[in-house]
Design goal:
Elements: H1 2-45, H2 66-75, H3 105-112, E1 120-124, H4 136-142, E2 145-149, H5 153-159, E3 167-169, E4 172-173, E5 180-185, E6 192-193, H6 205-209, E7 215-221, H7 223-230, E8 234-235, E9 237-240, H8 246-250, E10 259-260, E11 262-266, H9 273-283, E12 287-293, E13 300-305
Parallel strand pairs: 1-2, 1-9, 2-3, 4-7, 8-10, 9-11
Antiparallel strand pairs: 5-6, 5-7, 11-13, 12-13
Length: 320
Amino acid sequence: MARAQRRITFAMKKLVSRKLCFYILLAILMVCLFNILTSKNGRTEIDAMHYDDSDLNGPKVFMDNSNLVKKLQDNFLIRPIEESKGHRNRYNLIDMSLRDPSMGQAAEISKIIDYQKGGFFIECGALDGETRSNTLLFERFYGWTGLLIEADPLNFAKMLKKGRRAYLSPTCLSINPYPEIVSFLQRSNMGRIAYEEVVEDLVGINDIGEKKLPMVNVQCFPFYTYLLALNITVVDYFSLDVEGSELNVLKTIPFDKVDIRTLSVEFFHVKEGDDGVRTYLENKGYIVTGKVTRQDRLANDYIFAKPSVLSQNLSFYVTE
């Protein structure tokens, strides 16, 4: 009897052991399956927040790609300084007495549009946000806001301290209709995309090739991507000064989708010359309303406007 009882007990233990192994194995399989499913679903919800540059750069990425727009919004845009309890934050400028630090561009734009009612600007090649800024006058005294783009990290760090009431972006405007990472020459107020074919000034091609100048990798976005990220369709003033890449940047802009009312465009370093810039924008429906030049080369800009925004008759503006 006792022997039979032991056999029954042994058989039951063996059966329980087999069932336990089965359930453990089943549990392991279920955990593995769960991890596979959640990792796939999680890639959309979680991993998408950690962008892979190789996936969001290059010719296959369209400028209106929703993930690209989100990448710009989440990682490369700093919001304007907010007012606190009805008090505007103070500017932290080197020269608070200087009303217009531009080299004449702001004055030319002021002739074209009713700047006293506020507006939206984009300034690319914003330097430190104060030195020779083409937009500070409008923001500081007339309630404008906008976007300041500066690719050089050293200049951008200075701009962060100025107290500008605009979006800030440590990036560059792409010279192609898609996002890309470029090598950027750090040359204070003359920084530019390396290896871009431009008219050189003080630094020769050999200096770049021999790497005598510091370079840094910078993320570039097409102009239109910034507008989508900011939900903006009208730009009252676009200041473009990128040391030779101006025409290539302009060629990426879908002018049929955006309304850029006025522009100042530096032309000195553009390999196609000032006629190349002028002809391109005239073919887009703009007219030249002025030209800002200086002997020290701190300004070599055409001023452009759409005829529909002019505050005076065409004969009022210098078009030579």
